[in-house]
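Write out the bound-state structure for FE2/S2 (inorganic) cluster.
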Amino acid sequence: MVYEFTKEDLNEIEKIKSRYPEVKPATLPVLWIAQNRFGHVDPEVQRLVAKTLELPEAHVHGVATFYTQYYKEKKGKYVLDVCTCLSCQLCGGYDILHYLEEKLGIKKGETTEDGMFTLNEVECLGACGYAPMLQVTNDKYVNNLTPEKAENLVESLKKGEEPEYEKIEMPLRKNN
Ligand code: FES
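---
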């Protein structure tokens, strides 16, 4: 597949570049634009970002692989990151993970055949007071999970409905 940025993407990239005295700091936001556009930043997409920013491919690859938030391969439409770190584990994080494995018919790290869901087991997402919790596609948090709540989430997403996400106080995260 040949990846190309749209005209709008390129305009946005030019704006981002103009904010910095040199081009390297634009790597992070331009990788986000690429991930939003293509759903991932696999090696081909990383090459496109490097070419667009006129930076070495090794630099872009280094940045993309440093952050787990960048998907280095194709994922499902929704990526469910289930936290099983200490607080979540003690509050039933593994029950939620295993429930979702059964519900979706996949193991952690896999994507459903219809391409709708990828299920991951992740480390602490900084919302331990709301354990057990999961994150949907690098964005919304679903807190105080129960299997029922996990099921409702999956069913809503399947129907293309935006579930009601609880707002929590996370001053360091722009989306909460
Ligand atoms: S242990 Fe799950 S959010 Fe911190």
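---
The helical segments are 7-18, 27-38, 43-53, 57-66, 86-90, 93-104, 147-158.
The first strand starts at residue 78 and ends at 83.
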